[in-house]
Specification:
11 helices; alpha/beta; 338 residues; Rossmann fold; single chain; 36% helix
C-alpha cells in the first residue's frame, strides 16, 4: 500500500459519523498514521467512539476535539497541532431537515466549508479532501444546493494557496450502502418490526451502490493523486430499489408510494456539461476544473476523455446488480460495521 498516510496527522470534521468511523478504522488497520483527530460537536458520540474496542486499541494515535465547523477559531486551534491532511465530512445531510431549516443548512454546509478552507489556508495543512454528493449535481433540493456551493468553494480555494504547499479536491458519491438515513436501515427496521410489505417510492427508481470502504478508498486515492480542483468519482454498479426490497425480504409485497419532495429518480455523478472536462480511468472518473487555479494543477493523461455529452447516471449505467448480487453486497455491509 502507498505510504501517503504513514506518519501523517489527519483531522476529520464530522468524524463520529458513518464515514469518519469507517475511515479511521481502515486507516488504523492498514497504515501507520502519526495521529487522527476526530473533530465534531457531539460529546456523547465521541465518548461512544472512544470506547469502541478498535479505537481503544489505537488510543495512542486517537484524539477527540469538540468543535463545530461554524466556529473558525476553534478549527484553527485544532489545526495548529501539526495537521497534514483534512477530510471534510461534516454536513447537515437530511433533505427534509435542510428544507425546514434552510438557514442552519447554509451555516453548516456553506459557511462551515468556508471556515474549513480559511483555517486550512492559514495553517500548515497540505491536503484537503471534501466529501460531496450526487445531490450537488443539478440540485433539486436545498441540501444539494448547499453542497454545490461547497464544492465550488473547495475548487476555487486552490486559487488562494499562493506559494503554500496545499491542495483542495473533492470526492463525490451518492447514498452509501447502510449509512444512517439510507434505504437499507429503513427497510431493515420495517422487516424487524414484522412488516411484509415494503414501500417503494417508484418502481423505476435506481441508485448507485457504494460501500463505506469504497468511499474511504476513494478518499485515499484523492490524497495520493489529487493536485487540486479535481472531483473523484468511483465507477460503481447500479441497482433498482425494488430489487433491494426483494433481496432483503424475499417474496415481499411492495407498495409504490411516489417520489418524495426533493428526491430524484436516478443519481447523477457526471453531467453532460461536465463531460468536456471529465476523464475516465480503470476504476474511477475525474472531473477536472474548468479553470486552472494554480501552476500545480495537472491532468493525469493516462486516462481517456469521455465522449461529448457523456452522462454518468445510475439509470443509464452499464454495470447493474441483480437481486443475488445485492444479497452478497448486503453481507459485506454487515461486516463493515465491525
Amino acid at each position: 500500500m502507498s505510504n501517503v498516510i504513514d506518519g501523517k496527522t489527519i483531522l476529520i470534521t464530522g468524524g463520529t459519523g458513518s464515514f469518519g468511523k469507517c475511515f479511521t478504522k481502515y486507516v488504523l488497520r492498514n497504515y501507520d498514521p502519526k495521529k487522527i483527530i476526530i473533530y465534531s460537536r457531539d460529546e456523547y458520540k465521541q465518548f461512544v467512539m472512544s470506547n469502541d474496542p478498535v479505537f481503544k486499541k489505537y488510543e495512542d494515535k486517537m484524539r477527540y476535539f469538540i468543535g463545530d465547523v461554524r466556529d473558525r477559531e476553534r478549527l484553527e486551534r485544532a489545526l495548529r497541532g501539526g495537521v497534514d491532511y483534512v477530510i471534510h465530512a461534516a454536513a447537515l445531510k437530511q433533505v427534509p431537515a435542510c428544507e425546514y431549516n434552510p438557514a442552519e443548512a447554509i451555516k453548516t454546509n456553506i459557511n462551515g466549508a468556508m471556515n474549513v478552507i480559511d483555517a486550512c489556508l492559514d495553517t500548515n495543512v497540505k491536503k484537503v479532501v471534501a466529501l460531496s454528493t450526487d445531490k450537488a449535481v443539478n440540485p433539486v433540493n436545498l441540501y444539494g444546493g448547499t453542497k454545490l456551493v461547497s464544492d465550488k468553494l473547495f475548487m476555487s480555494a486552490n486559487a488562494y494557496s499562493g506559494s503554500r504547499d496545499i491542495s483542495f479536491c473533492i470526492v463525490r458519491y451518492g447514498n452509501v450502502a447502510g449509512s444512517r438515513g439510507s434505504v437499507i436501515p429503513f427497510f431493515k427496521t420495517l422487516i424487524e418490526e414484522g412488516q411484509t410489505t415494503l414501500p417503494i417510492t417508484d418502481y423505476r427508481m435506481s441508485r448507485f451502490w457504494i460501500s463505506l470502504t469504497q468511499g474511504v478508498q476513494l478518499v485515499i486515492k484523492a490524497l495520493e493523486e489529487g493536485h487540486g480542483g479535481e472531483t473523484f468519482i468511483s465507477k460503481i454498479p447500479s441497482f433498482y430499489v425494488k430489487d433491494l426490497a426483494e433481496a432483503m425480504l424475499p417474496g415481499c409485497k411492495t407498495n409504490e408510494v411516489g417520489i418524495r419532495p426533493g428526491e430524484k429518480m436516478h443519481e447523477v455523478m457526471v453531467t453532460a456539461e461536465d463531460a468536456a472536462n471529465t476523464m475516465e480511468y480503470d476504476k474511477y472518473f475525474i472531473v477536472y476544473p474548468q479553470i486552472t487555479f494554480n501552476d500545480r494543477q495537472v491532468r493525469d493523461m493516462s486516462g481517456k476523455t469521455v465522449a461529448d455529452g457523456f452522462v454518468y447516471s445510475s439509470g443509464t449505467n452499464t454495470e447493474w446488480m441483480n437481486v443475488e448480487d445485492i444479497r452478497r453486497r448486503l453481507l459485506e455491509v454487515a461486516t463493515e460495521e465491525n
